[in-house]
């Protein structure tokens, strides 16, 4: 197989995917037209043009997409649609296990946080029945919304842990949002309570240079996985202190190459910090972040990584299995998933055309 086809065939694990940002252009256009037909006036006039630009979108247009997504996902019907579509799209890309993260929405007269999450969870169950994929959910804490809102999200996540139907689906808490907003140190009590409750923690860290904040959060011992981690390694703008903690604790990094390049936090693919950590055999998971906004797929991210860093077939297989190891699953479920992924990988051995 050629590289792109081979990467499509790999049984992949996606651990850093934001629900709304993962919407395909086709789904977004459909929702825009539905909303327009209902006479909505909250959409930018250029919304369709921006979406149709796809791979050609500028950084500013990518930010416009986020605003468009916010405006078209303001009904429970739309929330159900996007959840079904996103999971189906990941399944079509041969993603075998998906951890989907989303910030619960509270929109007056339209939905409460609980109604939003119930709709996402119900649609997730339906999507898993339709597709060959296992999905788990992380509730997202947006650092730009303040500590009070974060406590509310945590309380909702704790409620789901003992829910008869949804209990097995909610596996953790994601901390994300604009890295220039708020101070993560203020959220440490929330993370401590989440950990005590049995929730795993994936935290966006060092997306921008901020050693003081990053060091304090990492020193807490609360972080199970790091989102991005762009400015942690000394050779990518981090420090020895940050590097030592991550290395000593073997905290997996969720790496989102296209997202980092298009967001401007990394200049080019060759300089991406993934290369630095790979040389040290550190746990890494290839992810998409916002596959719709940044016009990519997990297969494309694997292919880009393979081309840039001259990865072999065995390297690609190790990355797939590394995703399993970093998943927020109970040990028995993780072992079962690993066996399934390994079986598929074995069937692909020797089929990658040498480059």
Please explain how this structure is put together.
Helix 7 links the parallel strand 3 and strand 4. It is built from 15 helices and 8 strands. The chain is an alpha/beta fold. The mean pLDDT is 93. Strands 1-2-3-4-5-6-7-8 form an 8-stranded parallel β-sheet. Helix content is 49%, strand content 13%.
In terms of per-residue confidence, which ranges show pLDDT below 50 for 5 or more consecutive residues? none
* Range of helix content: 40-55%
What gross morphology would you assign?
A: globular
Q: What is the structural class?
A: alpha/beta
Average predicted local confidence, pLDDT: 93
First CA to last CA: what distance?
Answer: 11 Å
Features:
single chain, 355 residues, alpha/beta, 15 helices
Write the layout of secondary structure elements.
Layout: H1 3-9, E1 12-18, H2 25-37, H3 47-52, H4 59-72, H5 76-92, E2 95-102, H6 113-130, E3 134-142, H7 147-161, E4 170-176, H8 188-196, E5 200-205, H9 211-219, E6 225-228, H10 240-249, E7 253-255, H11 257-263, H12 274-279, E8 284-286, H13 298-309, H14 313-326, H15 331-348
Helix pairs in contact: 1-13, 5-6, 9-10, 14-15
């Amino acid at each position: 197989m050629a590289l792109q086809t081979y990467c499509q065939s790999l049984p992949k694990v996606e651990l850093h995917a934001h629900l709304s940002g993962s919407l395909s252009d086709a789904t977004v256009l459909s929702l825009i037209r539905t909303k327009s037909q209902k006479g909505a006036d909250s959409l930018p006039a250029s919304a369709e043009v921006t979406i149709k630009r796809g791979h050609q979108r500028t950084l500013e247009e990518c930010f416009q997409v986020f605003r468009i997504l916010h405006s078209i996902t303001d009904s429970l019907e739309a929330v159900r649609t996007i959840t079904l579509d996103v999971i189906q799209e990941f399944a079509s890309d041969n993603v075998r296990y998906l951890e989907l993260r989303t910030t619960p929405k509270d929109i007056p007269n339209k939905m409460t946080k609980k109604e939003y999450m119930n709709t996402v969870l119900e649609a997730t169950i339906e999507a898993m029945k339709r597709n060959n994929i296992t999905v788990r959910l992380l509730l997202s804490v947006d650092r730009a919304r303040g500590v009070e809102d974060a406590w509310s999200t945590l309380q909702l996540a704790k409620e789901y842990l003992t829910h008869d139907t949804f209990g097995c689906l909610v596996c953790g808490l994601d901390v994300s949002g604009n890295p220039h907003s708020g101070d993560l140190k203020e959220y440490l009590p929330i993370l401590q309570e989440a950990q005590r409750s049995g929730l795993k923690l994936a935290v966006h860290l060092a997306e921008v240079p901020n050693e003081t904040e990053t060091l304090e959060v990492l020193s807490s011992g609360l972080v199970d996985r790091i989102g991005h981690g762009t400015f942690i390694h000394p050779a990518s703008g981090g420090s020895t202190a940050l590097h030592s903690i991550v290395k000593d604790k073997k905290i997996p990094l969720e790496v989102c190459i296209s997202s980092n390049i298009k967001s401007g936090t990394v200049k080019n693919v060759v300089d991406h910090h993934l290369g630095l950590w790979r040389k040290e055999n550190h746990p890494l998971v290839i992810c998409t972040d916002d596959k719709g906004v940044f016009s990519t797929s997990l297969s494309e991210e694997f292919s880009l990584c393979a081309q840039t860093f001259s990865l072999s077939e065995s390297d690609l297989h190790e990355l797939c299995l590394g995703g399993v190891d970093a998943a927020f699953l109970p040990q028995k479920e993780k072992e079962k998933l690993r066996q399934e992924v390994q079986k598929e990988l074995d069937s692909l051995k020797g089929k990658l055309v040498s480059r």
